[in-house]
Amino acid sequence: MSNSDNTITPDENGRFGDFGGRYVAETLMPPILELEAAYEDAKSDPDFISELDGFLNHYVGRPSPLYYAERLTEFTKGAKIYFKRDELNHTGAHKINNCMGQILLAKRMGKTRIIAETGAGQHGVATATVAARFGLKCIVYMGATDIVRQKPNVFRMRLLGAEVRSVKSGTATLKDAMNEALRDWVTNVNDTFYCIGTVAGPHPYPAMVRDFQAVIGREAKKQILEREGRLPDALIACIGGGSNAMGLFHDFINEKSVRLIGVEAAGKGVESGLHAASLTGGSPGVLHGNRTYLLQNNDGQIIDAHSISAGLDYPGIGPEHAYLHDIGRAEYLSATDDEALHWFQECARLEGILPALEPSHAIPRTVEIAKEIGKDGIVIMNMCGRGDKDVFTIADALGEHISEGTEG
Amino acid sequence: MTTRINETFKNLKQTNSKAFVAYIMGGDPDREVSQKMLNALPSSGVDIIELGMPFTDPAADGPIIEEAGLRALEAGTTLSTIFEMACEFRRINSTTPIIIMGYCNPVHHMGYKLFAKKAKASGIDGAIIVDLPPEEDSELREAFNLNDLALIRLATPNTDKNRLSRVVSGTKGFVYYVSMTGITGASSDRINSVSEQVNRIRHASNLPVVVGFGVKTPDDAQKIAHDADGVVVGSAIVKELNEKGVEPALKLVRALAKAVHK
Q: What confidence tens digit (pLDDT) does each residue in B19-31 have?
């Protein structure tokens, strides 16, 4: 981890423009102020940085490769497409970059109990993994609906020694798991560290999680300069809360020649109302500690998100993305369930890579952008997770029955 | 109006009594039953009413209040319903303060200025917005001040000395002391001794101190009333209303009021 001083920093109230902030109950104000102070201290401590870098190298397996997707490029007949292969990290996604940072911080703060929320289970697995590595107690909140559709990850978390608590309240998905984790934190403020999995939540989480994920973009920049001798024309990443996208974008914010493109989950289509595209189909509001774009009705009640990908199935988005959207620095597009399913299969066939359903959403827009830019161009897509966890969901969607685990 | 809250505490002080604050969720299980319950609270011994505004994602509440909110939403309750309920209540009562309580997003969505204006016009006296700490409430506070409404802030066991002075400096009407670090409806075993904490707040503010969270039985209420200026009971009443109906819920309210006023 190292600090770039040429990028966006939230103000003293944790705001990126009009977004972010600390919208939490009074009981949570002291712990988030404590966390902010501890993080500020840690991030300028060379010992903390070298400890984190050491674990990222030897435990997570960084740097992840920057891979030229030659056959997809030939198929597309446009710009060269590179994949930043964060799906090759330990536990199979980018999530562990952040968990490693936060749990080292928890240890430094003397916290003994780690809690987390999870949707697809990737953040839950990553948190359980790192908690096991450091011998810390770990409790993961997961919506009852998601527990059914992500059975393999639930079992993995239990094998890793975590307690998975099923959340049946509300819509029993990721947003409700986050509510329940907040309830746990408010009840156990003294010994508990809440490890949030995305660039959302009250300040300092959006900036802190981004900083821990920024390793993705720092590596990608170095790797593309070595390979191509120049910066790419565009970066593309899928967005639920937006941590893999923020991680890829962060080091390129001030490189104005580089287009930053986020792809939200359009579910059955934004016009259908059944989607998870907070920027494309939502409006500003306050949820889970921050002001950002949300899916909400005319009375400010939260609308449930819909996506075939449990990891994108969230009715909000990180506040820094809301800001980048409003100032026009990043572009936000969307992709439907059907497009993700189609390009999942194309990617498997052309590149021998099973992408997770989340980055499968980024592929159709990557192909379009690559065509638009043309043959002399270069684009990098973040392959932020691997698809092994999704094979049952995909088999189901394709009408095939591969085992008794196909329910959901 | 802040006057109505101030008058209530003044009158109670003259009789050496404490305030019984009852919470119900607006629109739970529907507008009609909820209105009936609301209208009957003052004659059942309630000094101040907290009227809940339902929200889909009440992260500081336990399952009882959360489910009440979801029932209310299912029945079509909106912020406008809450204002209509207050208006109807004011036709029969001009003295009992109503504090509306809920989460930021529906208020933010309506717009802070319009929300304050409508609250004032509906005869509401103040509000508690759970996820709007002092760091984030200046815009709403300004709108409330213009309309003589009280924005009541929460103090908790982990609000330290420095924060406490910040919390109480912007609050009006009373200070709401949350008896535990936890969610609404938690076990009363978790209530820390409140006398020391109430004294700590009195040291920082001249406002009355009202204590809530985890208070369930007349015994709990009586113990807390001994130390505080008022006691809030929410989940226990909401649960009784849901499980047994209006009359049994009002019976519980009367028993709680009697214990607080003793």
A: 999 999 999 999 9
* Residue from the list B59, B109, B153 with its beta carbon closest to the beta carbon of A179: B59
Residue A204: cis peptide before it, omega within 30 degrees of 0? yes
Candidate from A13, A25, A301 with C-beta closest to B131 = A25
**CB contact A12 to B (< 8 Å):** no
Q: Which of B47, B61, B66, B240 is labelled catalytic?
A: B61
The helix (H) or strand (E) run that includes residue B20 is: strand B19-25
* Cβ <8 Å between A286 and B155: no
- Over residues A97-125, the pLDDT tens digits come to 999 999 999 999 999 999 999 988 999 99
CB A276 within 8 A of CB A312: yes
Q: Would you call A287 an interface residue with chain B, using a CB distance cutoff of 8 Å?
A: yes
Q: Cβ–Cβ of A300/B110 closer than 8 Å? A: yes
Domains and CATH numbers, chain A: 25-58+95-209 (3.40.50.1100), 63-92+214-406 (3.40.50.1100)
- Are B81 and B31 in contact, with CB atoms under 8 Å apart? yes
Give me the residue spans of the domains in chain B.
2-261
Fold of the B2-261 domain? TIM Barrel (3.20.20)
- Using left for φ > 0, alpha for ψ between -120 and 50, and beta otherwise, residue A135 falls in left
Give the closest-approach CA distance of B142 to chain A in angstroms: 18
